[in-house]
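Narrative progress, year one. The postdoctoral researcher (J.K.) led the effort to move from monomer predictions toward full complexes, under supervision of the PI. The following entry was the first complex the group processed end to end, covering 508 residues in total.
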Amino acid sequence: MVLCTTPFEVTARNIARVLGLPDYPFLTVQHPIGSCTLPELKARAQVAYKQALPILMQA
Amino acid sequence: MQLYSPLSTTPKRKAVRAPALGSIDGLRIGILENGKLNAEEMLNEVAALFVQHHGCTVRTLASKKNASAPAPSNTLVQVAQEVDFLITGLGD
Amino acid sequence: MSTTASFRTHEVPDDLLAAIDYCYDQGWTDGLPVVPPVVDRVKAMLAADSRPADTVIARHPATGLDLSLHAAAVNAVMAGCLPEYFPVVVAAFEAMDKPDFNFHGSTASTGGSAPLVIVSGPYADEIGMNADVNLFGPGNRANGTIGRATRLILRNVFQMLPGISDKSTQGNPGKYSFCIAERARGNPWPPLCEAQGYPKGTSSVTVYAGGGFCNVENHGGNTPEQILSSVADAMANYGCITLGQAVVILAPEHMQIVAGAGWTREKAQAYLFTQAKRSVDGMKSVGKYRDREYDTQHGEGAHALAEAGFMHRGLTPDDILITMGGGDAGGHSCFIPSWSRGRGSIMQHSAIRAPDK
């Protein structure tokens, strides 16, 4: 599972295309991460977790 | 007139996704963090939710020495043998 | 589109302006018009390197994409290079291909660096490069197009697309072209190619992930300490100070003062390293102090000139490349900061394979 923040969504899509998986689904959360407090990280983790479940279970 | 393409002459790659998981309960999660600020913490928080809700275990913690380089293949090979799925980050 | 011996071609109307527009429409340009890469011009460019056209000269670990001589030649034509410039473009990528340069990271980063290409040795003069007035541009075809070819290759071959895979927060004018020649005329110090250990007569390309350009003006100083202290201050400004490397290009007026007092390159490097520093308290006051970085600089293997209680720029005086360039008049030297927050890219060099005469 690849996690990125919203400004890097286009980056993730581009690298997935170049690596031969143009429709690769990844997790996207609010930017930034580097300056987040722990509560902010936990909130973002919840968002990522909810996105991850259907991706892991889908073919 | 004929123009040469300026793109790479490397043949296009095709890859396939890993098959879907039948169930998440009790699976082993690997974390690969890229050394950026709060990367390890963020990925740990995501993994913690899988531990809490599905009884997953965090089996491996690996770090990329260089955030902008691909993970070394020996890192990936080792991690792939020990986990059922991996969580990693891209960008800042 | 058709495939000829694995090198793809595009058929376009026989109209030059339409071909220029076609290149724009394909997304092949840096925002400026390119020279359409017609087959004959690419073949003439390739003739400047005797190796087969499918020879790989650089690899991109992040994507698995390779740079062949053919693709380099196509982009060099588009940039406006003459065939005699091609060996410099090739040497630049052979240097950038060394893992410690990390051309992916330095290009993709929000930090916004561009590879500075420094050509040293007789080949610079042979192809008419500029080491003099307007060193960093504009005006010289060789400087401008070699730098531009480097950028077009990063974009077209390695898909480092601005806004998509090149996430530089503010960009950098050097991302259009960033290429100079080291000035040989009147330079009292050994040229870089000699200092790098190449045999006499061999020219070199040095590549450095440059984060910007800082003009260092000093018209009143008349001692080496005064001139170099103003350079050191630029190197240590809070916006730039990191453990990374530095490039300093001394104007001839400033070099006359420094070398005129008998200072060697090594003495200038040591002085700059000693002076380019900020106190730990100062670094903390702006939120840039990191224990790990201080320990790296002052722990085992620390350089003797690293002063306790201070963060210096770089780890050793050898992290500072210093040479001469620019016009005879003007007390304007420059400092080029390294990419982003640390030592993610280390400058590299490679020999230029000059074509057989």
